[in-house]
Amino acid sequence: MKRFFCFLAVLMMGSAMWAQGVFTVVYATSDDGFVNVRKQPSMKAPVVSKLWMFSHGLGNGVLRGKSGKWCKVSVGKDTGWAYAKYVGEMNWYEGNGKPRLVAAKENTPIYAESMEDGSHDILFATVGKGTIIADKFQEDGAYYVLMTAHDNLFIKKTDAKIVP
Length: 164
Description:
Elements lengths: L1 H19 L3 E5 L5 E5 L8 E6 L8 E7 L2 E6 L2 E6 L3 E5 L8 E4 L4 E5 L9 E6 L4 E3 L3 E3 L2 E4 L6 E4 L3 E4 L1
Antiparallel strand pairs: 1-4, 1-7, 2-3, 4-5, 5-6, 8-11, 8-15, 9-10, 9-14, 12-13, 13-14
C-alpha cells in the first residue's frame, strides 16, 4: 500500500511538471516538406502559415498545446493548428531529475544564432514564465545554450533560472 502511494505521489509530481509546460520545437514530417498551419483545428479552416521540415537540425515552430488530432503551434508571429500526424517534436527536457532551466519571466525570449556575425539577436520564440526550457543545456558567457545538430538556441542568463 505504501508503495502505491509513493508511486502516486511521483506520478502527480511528474504530471504537475508537464502541466507547467515544456518548451518544445516542432517541424513538419510530411513527404512534401511542410504542413499547413490553420486558423482553426479543421482541414477547412484558412491557412495562416506553414510549418517546415528541419533546417540546420532545428524545427521552425513552437508547440503551444494539443487537442485530439491537432497541435497548436506558433511559427514566427503566427499561431494556429497543424495536423499532428505530420508534426515532429524536439525538446531539451528529459525529466530525469537533473537541474532544470526555467523561464524566469513572462515572454522569455529564446534566440537563434545569427549566421552573419555569430551574435544571438535573432528572436526564435518566446515562452511563458515557469516554462521548463531544458535539463540538457550548457553555459556560455551571458547565455544558456540549447545544442542541436547544427544551429543552437540561446537564453540570456538573466531571463532564466536553474531549479534543482
